[in-house]
Amino acid sequence: MNKSILDVGAGVGVLGMSVLRDYNKLKLSCVEIQETYIKYLDINLRINNQTARIYSGDFGSIVFKHRFDIVVSNPPFYDKDVLKSTDQTKQIARYNDSLPLGVLVQKSEEVLCDDGKLMFCYDAKQIDDLFDLLRSCGFNIEAMQFVHSKPNVNAKIVLIYARKNSNSKTDIYPPVVSFDNSGNTTQTMKDIYSKANIQSIKAKL
User: Fold this and answer.
1) Coil, strand or helix: which one is 171?
2) Which of 28, 103, 123, 124 suits a disulfide with 155, CB 3.0-4.6 Å?
3) Chain centre to alpha carbon of residue 99
4) Alpha-carbon distance values, 47 to 12, 36, 131, 174, 177 (Å)
5) Cα gap 167→102, rounded to integer Å
6) 3-class SS at 35?
7) pLDDT per residue over 116-154, tens digit each?
8) What does residue 14 show for φ and ψ, rounded to 5 degrees?
């Protein structure tokens, strides 16, 4: 039986489509709250010859009729108290009051099967909240990796792979650095971009 994956806060679909391209036996579903993004998500799926079930609405409120094997997400993680954009579309996509961390983790626990996997990125400064919430909801962090904008600069993002009902020790992978000290894209990031190679329409939101 094919495994099922749910992309939460799918946006225009790049994350879910990237996973589906590399693991084409997965059955993809996507959750997105903004109708503008859903329109582009549907177009991008067709451009990349992929299919997915699209759920429109707030992740915390949607009733799913079955459980998933994997949940992935690039959620909005900027703190609502540091809002900078006055554009509502960008606010919903970027700031965590539109999808609080507690909702993401707790709802993921509900919709995942007994040994389900949760993979997402988040603001590295909120790592204490991540640890507390994941553990309280029955998740164990099996792997994590920090992302730095430049060498010798504090991590901006942490990548998390957690699993329900797991007792595995945590692997901490070598850090990812986006740019060198001269501002040039590192080879690591070039390799990531090259592997991604997903076609997406360009639109002004």
Assistant:
1) strand
2) 124
3) 12
4) 12, 17, 38, 34, 31
5) 22
6) helix
7) 999 999 999 999 999 999 999 999 999 999 999 999 999
8) -60, -45
